[in-house]
Amino acid sequence: MSSPQTDNSGRLNVINDEIDLRRLWGLLMDARWLVIGTTVLALLLGLAYGFVATPIYKADGLLQVEPKTGSMAGIGDLNELLSQESSAEAEIQLIRSRMVLGQVVDQLHMDIGLAPDRLPLIGGFRAPEPTPEGAPVPLFAGFRDSETYVTVNHFNVPDGLLDEPFTLQSEDGQPALYYDGELVAKGPADQPLRSEDGGIHLELGEWQPGGEDLILTKYSILTVVNGIRANLAVSEVGKQTGIINMSYTGPNQGRIRAVLNAIADNYVLQNIQRTAEEAEKSLEFLDQQLPEIKSTLTNAEEKLNAYRLKSESVDLSLETQSVLERLVSIEAKLNELKIKESEVSARFTREHPAYRTLLQQRRSLEGEKAEINKQINELPETQQEILRLMRDVEVNQEIYVALLNKVQELRIMRASTVGNVRVIDSALVQPEPVKPQKGLIAALAGLLGLMMSVGHVLVRAAFNRGVETPDQLEEQGISVYAAVPLSESQQKLDRVMAALRRRKRGKHEPISLLAEKDPGDLAIEALRSLRTSLHFAMMEADNKVLMISGPSPGVGKSFVTANLAAVLAQVGQRVVVVDADMRKGHLHRYFENDGQTGLSSFLSGQADLDQVLVQTKEENLSFISRGQIPPNPAELLMHKRFGELMDKLSEQFDLVLVDTPPILAVTDAAIVGQLAGTSLIVARYGQNSVKEIDVTINRFEQNKVTIKGAILNCIERRASNEYGYYSYYKYSSDKS
């Protein structure tokens, strides 16, 4: 959608918020070689990175976590209640814990780093030197190549120097340890190296120094553990299967396999230690109970023997013997439940199903015991007493024997604990590296290059406010008298001129008129169209003076002025060109003039009209150069002699073309415009914005100069504007 607005000068401004998809496509087509080149370059860089980058390998293994049963031997049916499925997520976090990984770091000496002192970038791409055939290569805390073989058995530093690099050098065949350029310790390789304060301690294993220094670093346990976690992946296979997959990635196949196996071994070991620890706690509890039960049994036996001696032997009837056996059995069960309750209460609350089951069993046994006690109360007093004493002895004896059996069982369990975790598959390294994925990297790099190049084109187009079509000026109420295409021939001339300037020989070299050198050029055809438009535009003008100005330097005013004059002269009109740019004018180069005697000479009174007005080699075309550069160009233009000059030229010629400096730079054009009957401005394609042209016109209007319209110069043939004016000029230049 487009919404019209009117500015202070009365011109119509149109705000266009539509997205022109055809123009966007045209912009991309114009920059297709940039897009293609950037995409191909990014693709090649991605491929190069894929081949140069260090390959990353992957080792994997499997663990099984079995259901964990209660470890309290001899408790019986409660094991089923106390057993529970081990949470896979909890086991995964346990594998990744510092408890397990810290043991791996200590076991493999991963907290000691030893590497050659090389540049970070160049050294990283240096090919590894081959090691002697059959020679061991240290996985950790060591370095080996064809010349160097050094291993570290122990390296300890204060906490403040953790993760700090030390330099290990060979001096006279002996190892020397440096930190920050200062010697820390030096001595024979087969003896420990210590600093003066004893805080730094180094013990070497192998010492075969080569030609380069080594960087020795003692890493903090947290740094190494975090590094392991970054490369370690642990997950459950399926849901509630108890199968855990572990994988570890890294550039060294031997290292990643050793690390993953060490993680699995230490995880299994801690699981076994945990199970044995539970058995140990149960054993400690029973060892505390045994002396008490032994003492109780001894007291009961002594009381029974004393009573028998006192009352002589008392035989129990079969019925009484049966009651005694039942009572002993119940007492034994109650005591066993008491022990169970002591252990269960340490793990569960009274609301737990296991605890509630124990309480229910105890209440049931106590009920049976109460019934038996009623039967005992009906017996004679002597039999009641002997029954109670024999009950105490047999119950305590049975409990004591049971506890002894349980102690033996726990000791056997502690010695033969295997845990509920086992290694199914030990670590193996996949033969092919998992990174870098060359195809994916190349595809992503190419896609990124494509996106960046397209984004660059669109962003550049979005921020480029330069005029690209005459319609942009017409929408603002600015008449466009001509749209001049960019001339390839003129570009060649410009390149030649630039080359001459670089050699400092082309400052005064003449420039051929395009209207003479290539009359069929598209730019000249556009100027012929301008010639027709000027015929009607100047019919209502006050005089024959046509001023050509512009908003900024480099828009092509001189090119348009010189070639327009030649086109007008070719149809028989008498034309004079006046270079009123007395600051940087170079129109004299188009007409093979030295420019030393010209307008400034006439206005300052140093020359008359006959001396400054010269006839060019083009028939009907005369020229007045700028002359020598004066210190006060604007003051000279304001002199009455300039007005008199315009009047005399208007009498002698059909058209007076005046080329002026840019209005936004200096005020000269505003002075000349007050004497011109017709005024035009030249804007360059893609360089001058609509806002800049609007400001230019306002500047003239502030000085009472009316701008008839604009000439859009140097229109480039692009896909984004190929459907416009350019096509028409192309048609006019085609040869049949």
From TrEMBL:
Residue ranges constituting the AAA domain according to the UniProt record: 545-683
Any Pfam family: AAA_31
Record's keyword terms, sorted: ATP-binding, Cell inner membrane, Cell membrane, Coiled coil, Kinase, Membrane, Nucleotide-binding, Transferase, Transmembrane, Transmembrane helix, Tyrosine-protein kinase
Keyword ATP-binding among record annotations: yes
Catalytic activity: L-tyrosyl-[protein] + ATP = O-phospho-L-tyrosyl-[protein] + ADP + H(+)
Residue runs in coiled coils: 269-310, 355-385
Transmembrane segments: 31-52
Similarity field: Belongs to the etk/wzc family.
Name the record gives this protein: Tyrosine-protein kinase
